[in-house]
């Protein structure tokens, strides 16, 4: 083994986990995120530096394939990190194989009042109740048009206006799908967001049938449509939604979104309400991937998401049948060398 490698790994660990992260974690999570996004945007500016940095960062030389699309690495960035596609070139520089942008909504939406993101360091987890803030699809599309040379998935959600229900909700989603189709490699429908005033989601099979019928009629280039699911579905409900989705033309699943539950946390009195992400979510997310893989054929791509922080986590998702994996919270806790650290060990 090259003796420089362990030295470099120790240096990376000390640099981020002992120096940069403690400083970042002094500010509230959204302020820290805005600072990190500023650095990523600087890294991607002019597009010249990013490919050079990426050559040093990329540790996983084995590409993957899903939907007939080549992914330079199986590890991507989960939705929510780059909601408005402002830092794609910076994320490309860090070595990711793809990014899921979004959730993007048709209209700009401010989301919930702050504070709305909380760290649970003892659990390597986050709780968020962002409320789907988005700059709106008109702001996002021009940025997608100059995206880096790796697959970009766009996660689409209903504009989180609680007054937007029923047919209007379906039209709102279809408007966003129509706008992003020419500028992305796949669309991910965020089914776990509420679409009615009483909080029902598109994971309700009748609502899903109506939505997918309308999405199929959206004009534009043919792109795979995937569905992002909640980890909180009971096994029967999961089977029903997967079945309905596949019948409706869905060709992939992202499993999973954050959980409403608070499974065995070390943090006393964890914040609530909100979705929990990170290490405590992994077991449920892997089980969801396994159930989905068991229910659909290989033509359907499965993207594992939830608590990926190291090579063993990636392996667990791949063993359960995932084609690709994504991370958000693990990336926050492990920092800019995340891809090197994770994919070197896979
Ligand atoms: C602050 C925050 C914002 C998020 N925003 C979105 C979002 O807009 N749309 C979405 O589909 N998922 C969103 N997610 C969920 C993530 O994409 C992912 O499904 C979840 O965090 C589990 O992965 P992780 O454990 O690697 O973080 C968000 C997660 C976090 C922590």
Provide a descriptive summary of the structure in words:
Strand 3 (75-77), helix 4 (88-93) and strand 4 form a beta-alpha-beta unit. The mean pLDDT is 92. The strands form three sheets. An eight-stranded parallel beta barrel has the order 3-4-7-8-9-10-12-13, surrounded by five helices. It has helices at residues 4-24, 29-44, 49-57, 88-93, 137-145, 166-180, 205-216, 235-247, 282-295, 311-319, 329-334, 338-344; strands spanning 64-66, 69-71, 75-77, 98-104, 117-120, 125-128, 152-156, 186-190, 225-229, 252-255, 275-278, 301-305, 324-327. With 346 residues, the chain is α/β, with parallel strands linked by helices. It has a single domain, classed as Aldolase class I (TIM Barrel, Alpha-Beta Barrel). Helix 6 packs across helix 7, helix 7 runs parallel beside helix 8 (235-247) and helix 8 packs across helix 9 (282-295). The protein contains twelve helices and 13 strands. 40% of the residues lie in helices and 16% in strands. Bound molecules: flavin mononucleotide.
